[in-house]
TrEMBL record:
Any coiled-coil regions, as ranges: none
Keywords: DNA-binding
GO molecular function: DNA-binding transcription factor activity; transcription cis-regulatory region binding
Domain (HTH tetR-type) ranges: 5-65
PANTHER family tied to this protein: HTH-TYPE TRANSCRIPTIONAL REGULATOR PKSA (PTHR30055:SF226), HTH-TYPE TRANSCRIPTIONAL REGULATOR RUTR (PTHR30055)
Name of the protein in question: TetR/AcrR family transcriptional regulator
Domain of life: Bacteria
Keyword Ion transport belongs to the record: no
Family annotation (InterPro entries): Homeodomain-like_sf (IPR009057), HTH-type_TetR-like_transc_reg (IPR050109), HTH_TetR (IPR001647)
The entry's DNA-binding region: 28-47
PROSITE patterns: HTH_TETR_2
Organism annotation: Sagittula salina
Pfam families: TetR_N
């Protein structure tokens, strides 16, 4: 028997596929259940409704990003900023993340937007702030960690996530992530080092 974590991953994959095809408003829990070969009753029991399903997917996506970020940065060195940037951009600009942001933008209840914001500040932001605190302790940056982090976040993704969510640009690849992360690192070190 497949464990629940694996089953939820299959359901999430089905939901993201339908989201890409039909949009948030055009998909249903029944369609997700059919695509995932699950019962509609199971989906409603596990998630409550479509918004609940996407809330769980957002939390899992942000939790996975936070876990990946936690593996970067020891020992804290100047190049840590570029690696953190690459990992953050990979997470923020992944097809799953873009899809979840599109769902949040289409959710009239604003529950998904709130879940995204809360998850960012509870799961991802503390990991980044901790990394910047270690960089300050190591003498890599000379300003308050929160100030350097705010500058870095302004420089790193810029408006790329929004442009990807709206379809104005396609999702950039690893090479562009690496280049953008290196530029953000250089700028932050020049201004805050």
């Amino acid at each position: 028997m497949t464990d629940r974590h694996e089953r939820e991953a299959e359901i999430a994959e089905a939901a993201l596929g339908l989201l890409a095809e039909k949009g948030y408003g055009g998909m249903s829990m029944l369609a997700v259940a059919k695509r995932a070969r699950a019962s509609n009753e199971t989906l409603y029991r596990w998630y409550g409704d479509k918004t609940g399903l996407f809330e769980v997917m957002i939390a899992r996506n942000l939790g996975a990003l936070a876990e990946r970020l936690e593996t970067v940065g020891d020992p804290p060195e100047a190049h840590t900023l570029a690696r953190l940037g690459e990992v953050l951009l990979e997470g923020q600009l992944s097809p799953a993340s873009i899809g979840l942001h599109r769902a949040a933008a289409a959710d009239a209840s604003d529950r998904l937007g709130a879940t995204l914001a809360e998850g960012w500040y509870l799961l991802v932001y503390p990991v980044l702030l901790s990394a910047f605190s270690r960089l300050r302790s190591a003498g890599v940056i000379a300003v308050e960690p929160a100030d350097a982090l705010a500058l870095w976040l302004d420089l790193l993704p810029g408006d790329r996530p929004l442009r990807c969510v709206t379809g104005a640009i396609t999702i950039p690849g690893e090479v562009l992530h690496r280049a953008r992360a290196a530029r953000a690192q250089a700028a932050v070190l020049a201004l805050c080092g």
